[in-house]
Amino acid sequence: MSKTKLLVILIIYSLTNIIFTSNDVNIYFNYFKITFWLIFLFNNYYPLIQNIKTKKEVKIALIISLIFIFFYFASGFTFGFIKSPYNHSFIQILKNILTTLIPILGIEIMRYQLIKNNRHNKKLIIFITILIFLSEINIKVIFVLNKTQLFHNLVSIFIPLLFRHSLFTYLSLNTNYYLPLVIRIIDQIIILTLPIIPDNNWYIKGS
Fold it and tell me: pLDDT tens, 59-114?
């Protein structure tokens, strides 16, 4: 698939996310996301089967993930733990993982395909990173009447997610799609499967 087609698809997907999340119909967006990315992956299966051998970068990704998990849960011993908001029945865990990991797989492969031959086009790389960020952010976090809540949302949700996607773009530029993919998958599986999570405030989340 050409770069132009991929970019158009990403723009449409990002705009769709903004529309869905701003109109309280995001419950249907999960089904749309799965269908969208399954179609994309079906038409872009080659990156899934190339470079399947264990890579040095994958080991680095595992180390990074373990460090993040350690500090994440270590904060719970300072601020306490709370019950996870996710349902932990087997079917629900499977559903949560599928609705989360399939889009992540599609996004990271698309990110890599878009930027792998454009490393010198900084404006395009920034634009792609912003589009991917917009495709995953709940735009309602910035449309709140309370200024204090807006500040908290910006610090704990908006800015960290933007920096995370900047990091994932950097990793894709310098390695391959599988490094950010491994980090994101481990991160999500831990959050979706464990019954308790740290009770971190907005400042700690932002940090």
Answer: 777 888 888 888 877 777 777 778 887 887 888 888 888 888 889 999 998 999 88
Helix (H) or strand (E) holding 197: strand 196-198
Give the tokens for residue 11. Answer: 């723009």
Alpha-carbon span 111 to 176, nearest angstrom: 10
Cα 169 from chain centroid (whole Å): 11
Q: Select from 181, 155, 128 the least CA-distant residue to 7.
A: 128
Range of the domain at 54: 3-206
Query: pTM for the complete prediction?
Result: 0.83
Tell me the pLDDT tens digit for each residue of 38-55: 888 887 765 555 555 556
Using alpha carbons only, how large is the chain's radius of gyration in Å? 17
59's tokens:
């080991």
Q: How many domains does the chain have?
A: 1
